[in-house]
């Protein structure tokens, strides 16, 4: 198994766990769990592969990805009630999933020989879109849009770090740098409140 395949499998598994946790908060049945988990797990990678004209899409080429997502949803369906705080676990699992999915998307774009702009956008899309789909479908406030938190910024910085690191080290090592930068920034935002300035509207002048 190549590094990119391993990253895709890890991303699918962890994002599927987050999708199933959101399904548990919405009190869906086991089929709903599987649907939301699979949507979350494959959403970002599907958009990536369609945009890059990577045929077939990764989970069509290897249906085992869907099996992994469904298995993850079943685990959460029978164990979510044991968690003290599903929201807290969801937030941290989502951070871990982001740190795996961004290098997966970045690595695919780099392997296909695309330029820096495409590599950056595919890293961000792979990391962020599955979770965005999950939250919109389940009527949750999207984690990607939480006020001031580093989410898309963490994904972008991770992909950029991979591009820079790839100039001086093998691609595999550069993708590990990508994962580390993404996770550190996202975790720092959650633990220490790291954030970018947010827009503040001012009252109109009379």
TrEMBL record:
<protein>
    <submittedName>
        <fullName>Trimeric intracellular cation channel family protein</fullName>
    </submittedName>
</protein>
<feature type="transmembrane region" description="Helical">
    <location>
        <begin position="90"/>
        <end position="110"/>
    </location>
</feature>
<dbReference type="Pfam" id="PF03458">
    <property type="entry name" value="Gly_transporter"/>
</dbReference>
<feature type="domain" description="Glycine transporter">
    <location>
        <begin position="6"/>
        <end position="79"/>
    </location>
</feature>
<feature type="transmembrane region" description="Helical">
    <location>
        <begin position="57"/>
        <end position="78"/>
    </location>
</feature>
<feature type="transmembrane region" description="Helical">
    <location>
        <begin position="174"/>
        <end position="196"/>
    </location>
</feature>
<feature type="transmembrane region" description="Helical">
    <location>
        <begin position="149"/>
        <end position="168"/>
    </location>
</feature>
<keyword id="KW-1133">Transmembrane helix</keyword>
<keyword id="KW-1003">Cell membrane</keyword>
<feature type="transmembrane region" description="Helical">
    <location>
        <begin position="6"/>
        <end position="23"/>
    </location>
</feature>
<keyword id="KW-0812">Transmembrane</keyword>
<keyword id="KW-0472">Membrane</keyword>
<feature type="transmembrane region" description="Helical">
    <location>
        <begin position="30"/>
        <end position="51"/>
    </location>
</feature>
<dbReference type="InterPro" id="IPR005115">
    <property type="entry name" value="Gly_transporter"/>
</dbReference>
<feature type="domain" description="Glycine transporter">
    <location>
        <begin position="92"/>
        <end position="165"/>
    </location>
</feature>
<comment type="similarity">
    <text>Belongs to the UPF0126 family.</text>
</comment>
<feature type="transmembrane region" description="Helical">
    <location>
        <begin position="116"/>
        <end position="137"/>
    </location>
</feature>
């Amino acid at each position: 198994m190549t590094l990119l395949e391993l990253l895709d499998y890890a991303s699918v598994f962890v994002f599927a766990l987050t999708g199933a946790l959101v399904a548990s908060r919405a009190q869906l049945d086991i089929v709903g769990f599987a649907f939301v988990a699979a949507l979350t797990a494959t959403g970002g990678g599907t958009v990536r592969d369609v945009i890059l004209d990577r045929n077939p899409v990764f989970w069509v080429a290897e249906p085992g990805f869907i099996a992994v997502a469904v298995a993850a949803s079943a685990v959460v369906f029978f164990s979510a009630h044991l968690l003290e705080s599903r929201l807290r676990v969801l937030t941290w699992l989502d951070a871990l999933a982001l740190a795996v999915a961004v290098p997966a998307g970045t690595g695919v774009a780099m392997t296909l020989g695309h330029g820096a702009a495409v590599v950056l956008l595919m890293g961000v899309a792979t990391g962020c879109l599955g979770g965005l789909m999950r939250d919109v479908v389940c009527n949750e406030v999207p984690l990607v849009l939480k006020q001031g938190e580093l989410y898309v910024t963490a994904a972008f910085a991770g992909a950029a770090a991979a591009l820079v690191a790839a100039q001086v080290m093998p691609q595999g090592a550069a993708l590990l740098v990508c994962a580390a930068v993404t996770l550190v920034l996202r975790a720092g935002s959650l633990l220490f409140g790291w954030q970018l300035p947010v827009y503040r509207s001012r009252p109109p002048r009379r």
